[in-house]
Amino acid sequence: xxxxxxxxxxxxxxxxxxxxxxxxxxxxxxxxxxxxxxxxxxxxxxxxxxxxxxxxxxxxxxxxxxxxxxxxxxxxxxxxxxxxxxxxxxxxxxxxxxxxxxxxxxxxxxxxxxxxxxxxxxxxxxxxxxxxxxxxxxxxxxxxxxxxxxxxxxxxxxxxxxxxxxxxxxxxxxxxxxxxxxxxxxxxxxxxxxxxxxxxxxxxxxxxxxxxxxxxx
Length: 217
Hints:
The protein is of the alpha+beta class and 217 residues long. The chain has six helices and eleven strands. It has one domain (54-215): 3-Layer(aba) Sandwich (Glutaredoxin).
């Protein structure tokens, strides 16, 4: 079930501890600007939690991203553009160090990245994002570096300056919240989108990655 629950910082932590599977938080891209305006008018500051994972099987719709502009953040060497994804199976994940459901998902995605690291025809793009419409790139870098070091992870991680890639996702399929994970096939078609996290995601994602890699170029 999809529902929004308004939480303060303290009550959000309590809510996480009382629930086995918090699913997602904070709308992003185009929606985050609407949220910011609403909060400004209301004069309040809070955290919005999306309860319940949603997923879309989009294989038959032939949808592509119109743009990708990612910059290396940690353990990544070069920028990523749309042409760098051509001919590859791509996992594109948007997450934040401030987002508890993202942190629950993180070890599973890191394991998947390690499993397929160096595999020809596969590209894993983890994009670390800020919690609001005005992102501080150095703050994201610092928080992400501290988190990955604490977890002993060397997962390649990227930035999305100016929300350009998230805007492209929003244009193609809608960007509803964090974490959001897209799976693209070798032709660049968006095959599946997951919004939020539950424990079925790693198994589903791994199975589909294997399937798409087996299809060949």
